[in-house]
Design a protein that fits this description.
Transmembrane segments: 15-34, 46-67, 79-102, 108-128, 140-160, 187-206, 218-239, 245-271, 283-303, 309-329
GO molecular function: transmembrane transporter activity
Shape: globular
Number of domains: 1
Keywords: Membrane, Transmembrane, Transmembrane helix
Order of helices and strands: HHHHHHEHHHHHHEH
Strand content: under 5%
Helix content: over 70%
Organism: Medicago truncatula (Barrel medic)
Largest sheet: 2 strands, antiparallel
Family: Belongs to the drug/metabolite transporter (DMT) superfamily. Plant drug/metabolite exporter (P-DME) (TC 2.A.7.4) family.
Number of helices: 13
Structural class: mainly alpha
């Protein structure tokens, strides 16, 4: 009887990372449209990344300072350089590539392509022995099949458009469409998106490694925000040197996108990802990206009236099937605390 009383609590504890990652994908979904509206309004994506992480660092600083005073390890020079590289990968490079690609593609396409991050992260994690594959086990086979299936789905979305699906009603919210010159730069946008996905995958893998030496997620989030903002500011000064007015932000959608991006995406969601990476590993975190694709597609089609192609539906379905084959395979792994787990590289059962 006592076990039944506490079973819901135990169930919530077991699936807490799953629930948190679902909520994180909801947060990312709104980020797609808020940032796109801001860029269509004329805001520079490079300025956006800089301001967003300055704001995020300021918001996260008091929480990191007071809540992790007793658990925050000493910041050595080696750790400082490691966090600098982590910021360079996940903020300065990945996010600037991400928002640059949003200028040349649609939110639906970008969300669909981001589903490759789970497969890329899995492949890199296997190569670096963060993950193992047991081909004698059905779950191990599911990991391989899931990776190949999801990549097939992404190729379907990229190479096959198919007929346009008819909109059921007029858009409820209008977002100014991209100009023809931007739409014709689809190849450029696709290449930037692929490079962005690879950079994000490496960033997720490196997070798991850094967390073992600096297991203070709030502090690590704050450091990454400030370092990433500084690095991005230097990059922005170079790129926008002929456009000083790009730094001026009015009381409009640009300001609201910075506030939302800073609090939710730049601060809260990075912290959530670090926490889940420590508990479940980098591959687990990236597995929930397909949910964002579903949410973005639903909003883009039903609310914003964006064009939806049959190829996107077919490819998206294949991607989701593949990634959740991978998720089922991963559920066979024992939960790993990336902070304390010791690993023998010669042990075939080694995960970390």
């Amino acid at each position: 009887m006592e076990q039944k009383i506490f079973s819901p609590l135990l169930g919530f504890k077991k699936f807490k990372p799953h629930l948190i990652m679902v909520l994180a994908q909801v947060g990312y979904t709104f980020l797609y449209f808020i940032s796109e509206a801001s860029f269509n309004h004329g805001m520079s994506p490079y300025v956006y990344v800089t301001y967003r992480h300055i704001f995020a660092g300021v918001v996260m600083l008091p929480f990191a300072y007071f809540l992790e005073r007793k658990v925050r390890p000493k910041l050595t020079f080696a750790l400082f350089m490691e966090i600098s590289v982590l910021s360079l990968l996940g903020i300065t490079m990945a996010l600037n590539l991400y928002f640059a690609s949003l200028k040349y593609t649609s939110p639906t396409f970008l969300a669909s392509m981001f589903n490759t991050i789970a497969s890329l992260t899995f492949i890199i994690a296997v190569a670096l022995r963060f993950e193992v594959i047991d081909i004698k086990n059905p779950r191990g086979i599911a990991k391989v099949l899931g990776t190949l299936t999801s990549l097939t789905g992404v190729m379907t979305m990229t190479l096959y458009k198919g007929p346009i699906m008819r909109n059921l009603w007029s858009p409820l919210i209008h977002i100014q469409p991209k100009s023809a010159s931007v739409s014709e730069s689809g190849l450029k946008g696709s290449l930037i998106t692929v490079l962005c996905c690879v950079t994000f995958s490496i960033w997720y893998i490196m997070q798991a490694s850094t967390l073992k030496r600096y297991p203070a997620q709030l502090s690590l989030t704050t450091w990454m925000c400030f370092m990433g903002a500084a690095q991005s500011a230097i990059f922005t000064i170079i790129v926008e040197h002929n456009n000083p007015s790009a730094w001026i932000i009015g009381f409009n959608i640009d300001l609201w996108s910075i506030i939302y991006g800073g609090i939710v995406a730049g601060g809260l969601l990075i912290y959530i990802q670090l926490w889940c990476t420590e508990k479940k590993g980098p591959v687990f975190v990236t597995m929930f990206n397909p949910l964002c694709t579903i949410f973005v597609t639903i909003l883009a089609y039903f609310v914003f009236g964006e064009k939806l192609y049959l190829g996107s539906i077919i490819g998206g379905f294949i991607v989701i099937v593949g990634l959740y084959l991978l998720l089922w395979g991963k559920e066979g792994d024992k939960d790993v605390d990336f902070k304390t787990k010791q690993c023998n590289s010669e042990d075939p059962e080694c995960i970390v």
